[in-house]
């Protein structure tokens, strides 16, 4: 219910989607937004002073002040790390060539290696560990990363300004920190799935041996069998490194193609939650890896960290995630009981884009709104197809230059998910949804999809117009097979 109010309040007709403190210190304000945006936000009637938001802003300002030096420290660290990795790789190759030369001196070496290859896991693992230990003594340990400033875990009630403050902070880091990402929970999970799929696909693709032998091996003065052995050792090293897929996904989180990895990294994560076992396992593995490698995380949630997993799923793994978050993030509560987005929506004169109950009058008003919106754009209504992640597509029955209309059943009564709703939100700035029923446990799955849909429309700043069976306050209060609860 609150999500609907939130989206209605963020429609393009409304002035602002939250209310930050209007009397921040000058340097704090300059830190969070440019002066033109600041002047716009401080116009009378758009913002209200909120001491809770001001407290959070102060925490974020302190973090922002430390980022410039941290970026420089991380750039220097990554230069040292790259030099260390290059030296270690050169030494590793030298050791491998020494092993080949030594073994080739024995006349029946290749015959005696055949039985060993019957059980590659044991022999290769022992050889790998011995080689890594020797490299530690030759090259030394990995350079120590600089201590990262603590991030922030911002939690509090819906509509209290968490996302707004996080987004203002994220905007302020532009030009200070090179590697930045801002994800909502649903988008992050999709990206994680996408990266995992790519890694698994690369791992299971079988290529001819010749094509898997690196150029540096092919140029060595050894016979083909020796080169094949070296190639097998190379592949085994990669398999060891990729065995835990979640750290591998985390390492790709900030990289686009051949993008340079030097410098600090910041992840802004909106609405962190643990809705199922996969979310707990994936977030634990990836966030732990990012935090351990120096990434600063600023996250928002409606729940305190310890309350994220009230269902008690994967307790041991969740506890590791919780420990990491508490070690690397300051817990910051926005204690306001005011839902500013609902407050704005209720006071707005332009709030007439939620029509109920379904009847002649509401249908006529809804249709008028639709014809007004499409008429301004030329009025040519067509059906089209939009691309969805993972190579899928979604048919859009009615659309007109950025405006689309769907029924509730079409979007939520079928097995669609966040990827589909993100595609809709990215392709259309205005969405009309008709025939929204009162939801209860009988259609729990549809209710979940509807909430995910609203989340993505909200995240992409879409305008929403609804034709529903009841008021927003009663939309999730159906009693068939029980009233819905805790669908977050």
Q: Could you explain the architecture of this structure?
A:
With 488 residues, the chain is α/β, with parallel strands linked by helices. The protein folds into two domains: 261 residues, P-loop containing nucleotide triphosphate hydrolases (Rossmann fold), CATH 3.40.50; 137 residues, Rossmann fold. Helix content is 52%, strand content 13%. It contains 19 helices and eleven strands. Strand 3, helix 13 and strand 4 form a beta-alpha-beta unit. It is elongated. The protein starts with a helix and ends in a 20-residue tail after the last strand. About 9% of the residues have low confidence.
Indicate the CATH topology of the largest domain: Rossmann fold
Mean pLDDT: 81
CATH hierarchy, class of the largest domain: Alpha Beta
Question: Which CATH architecture of the largest domain is right?
Answer: 3-Layer(aba) Sandwich
Q: What's the CATH H-level homologous superfamily of the largest domain?
A: P-loop containing nucleotide triphosphate hydrolases
State the strand order across the main sheet. Answer: 6-11-10-9-8-7
- Bin the helical content: 40-55%
Question: Are there runs of 5+ residues with pLDDT below 50, and where?
Answer: 8-44, 115-119
Report the end-to-end length measured between terminal Cα atoms: 11 Å
Number of strands: 11
Q: Work out the helix count.
A: 19
Radius of gyration: 28 Å
Beta-strand percentage?
5-15%
Number of domains: 2
Task: Identify the overall geometry.
Answer: elongated
């Amino acid at each position: 219910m609150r999500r609907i109010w939130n989206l209605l309040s963020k429609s393009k007709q409304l002035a602002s989607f939250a209310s930050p403190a209007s009397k921040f210190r000058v340097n704090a304000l300059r830190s969070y937004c440019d002066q033109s945006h600041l002047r716009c936000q401080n116009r009378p009637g758009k913002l209200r002073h909120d001491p809770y938001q001001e407290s959070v802003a102060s925490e974020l300002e302190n973090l922002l002040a430390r980022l410039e030096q941290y970026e420089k420290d991380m750039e220097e660290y990554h230069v040292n790390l790259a030099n260390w990795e290059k030296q270690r790789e050169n030494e590793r190759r030298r050791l491998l060539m020494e092993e080949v030369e030594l073994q080739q001196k024995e006349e029946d070496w290749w015959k005696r290696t055949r039985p060993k290859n019957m059980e590659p896991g044991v022999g290769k693992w022992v050889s790998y560990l011995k080689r890594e230990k020797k490299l530690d003594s030759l090259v030394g340990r990995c350079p120590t990363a600089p201590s990262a400033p603590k991030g922030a875990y911002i939690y509090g009630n819906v509509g209290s300004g968490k996302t707004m403050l996080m987004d203002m902070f994220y905007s302020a880091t532009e030009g200070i920190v090179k590697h930045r990402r801002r994800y909502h929970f649903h988008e992050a999970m999709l990206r994680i799935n996408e990266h995992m799929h790519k890694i698994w696909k690369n791992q299971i693709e079988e290529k001819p041996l010749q094509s898997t032998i690196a150029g540096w091996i092919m140029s060595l003065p050894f016979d083909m069998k020796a080169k094949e052995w070296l190639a097998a050792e190379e592949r085994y090293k990669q398999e060891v490194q990729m065995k835990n897929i979640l750290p591998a996904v985390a390492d790709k989180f900030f990289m686009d193609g051949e993008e340079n990895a030097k410098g600090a990294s910041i992840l802004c994560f909106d609405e962190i939650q643990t809705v199922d076992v996969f979310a707990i396992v994936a977030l634990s593995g990836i966030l732990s890896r990012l935090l351990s490698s120096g990434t600063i995380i600023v996250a928002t949630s409606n729940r305190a960290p310890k309350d994220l997993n009230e269902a008690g799923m994967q307790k041991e793994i969740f506890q590791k995630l919780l420990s990491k978050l508490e070690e690397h993030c300051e817990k910051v509560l926005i204690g306001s009981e005011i839902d500013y987005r609902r407050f704005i929506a209720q006071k707005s004169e332009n709030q007439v884009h939620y029509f109920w109950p379904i009847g002649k009058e509401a249908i006529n008003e809804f249709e008028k709104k639709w014809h007004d919106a499409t008429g301004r754009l030329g009025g040519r209504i067509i059906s089209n197809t939009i691309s969805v992640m993972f190579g899928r597509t979604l048919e859009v029955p009615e659309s007109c230059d950025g405006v689309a209309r769907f029924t509730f059943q079409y979007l939520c009564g079928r097995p669609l998910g966040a990827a589909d709703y993100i595609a809709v939100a990215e392709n259309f700035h205005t969405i009309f949804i008709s025939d929204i029923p009162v939801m209860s446990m009988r259609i729990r799955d549809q209710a979940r999809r509807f909430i995910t849909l609203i989340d993505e429309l909200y995240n992409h700043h879409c305008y929403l117009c609804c034709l529903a069976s009841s008021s927003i306050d009663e939309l999730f209060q159906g009693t068939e097979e029980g009233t819905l609860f805790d669908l977050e």
